[in-house]
Amino acid sequence: MMDGDVALALRRAGLDDGDAVWDVIRPALRAGETYALPRDISKADALALWLAADRETWLAEDQEGRTLGVYYLKANQGGGGSHVANCGYMTAVEAAGRGVARAMCAHSLERAGGRGFRAMQFNFVVSTNERAVRLWRAFGFETVGVLPDAFEHPRLGVVDALVMHRRL
Amino acid sequence: MMDGDVALALRRAGLDDGDAVWDVIRPALRAGETYALPRDISKADALALWLAADRETWLAEDQEGRTLGVYYLKANQGGGGSHVANCGYMTAVEAAGRGVARAMCAHSLERAGGRGFRAMQFNFVVSTNERAVRLWRAFGFETVGVLPDAFEHPRLGVVDALVMHRRL
Hints:
The structure is a homodimer of 168-residue chains.
Chain A: E1 9-12, H1 18-31, H2 43-50, E2 55-61, E3 67-75, E4 84-91, H3 100-114, E5 119-126, H4 130-138, E6 142-153, E7 157-167
Parallel strand pairs in A: 4-5
Antiparallel strand pairs in A: 1-2, 2-3, 3-4, 5-7, 6-7
Helix pairs in contact in A: 1-2
InterPro entries (chains A, B): Acyl_CoA_acyltransferase, GNAT_dom, Mito_N-acetyltransferase
Pfam families (chains A, B): Acetyltransf_1 (PF00583)
Domain N-acetyltransferase (chains A, B): 8-168
């Protein structure tokens, strides 16, 4: 934790946490600036992804039980690629800048290591998402790929996406 | 076409082409040396991928109507990433070295361009799959990412995977 960070408890999400998950992820999905998913994705389709059977999903809650963040952890590939983990993090709009993503990333790295994953990879970090890129770098992630013009940003036009990786 | 290449016709696969698709992809899936999928994947699960609603699947047939190759074409990402295509190609074991992958790749690039995709990306080219890497390079693909130790090869141990990309 750093100064100004909110105290959080992490717990596994269940299928009955759909509303809490949706409240966190909906604004970012509608904005369409960070995830390569349709901006008009339905609640059902989004939750089918975030609570899919191939991943575990965690909620970051403050001391009043409010959900301030959501992340999922899964194998990035199957078969011969299943030793590399993948995560996706979302912070509630009202909690931006309070260490929620940092707490989730720290938790996910420990969790992934404990499950035996040997590395973590982010497949599509929008290069203009500077706060995220800076945070992943602080956690030891390196850019192992640059996908040229891979993302059509709603405000900024066509921008690169990054593949980021660190060993566990 | 190059000398020694077999003459092929490409046609769209339908749901009733499952057996033909499976005959082509099964040996490569069981070998587990080129795709990051479980080596023991069932026929149903494999066909659910290869004939999924999010992609179009093409068969490469020789003049006797034998299926010598299968490929799929789809958007690599949704939303702001949907202008980049992705393909997966498989050649029948008995047809290796006869230009089947070359014919499929040429077809897929034209098809993807015709559909308005602006680039094609391969997310996970096993670096030891030298024949494939050489072929994609000949088609103008560049390595835009190296995923360190991303693939556990059944014979060669842990090897890198490549992210390859070309504009359309």
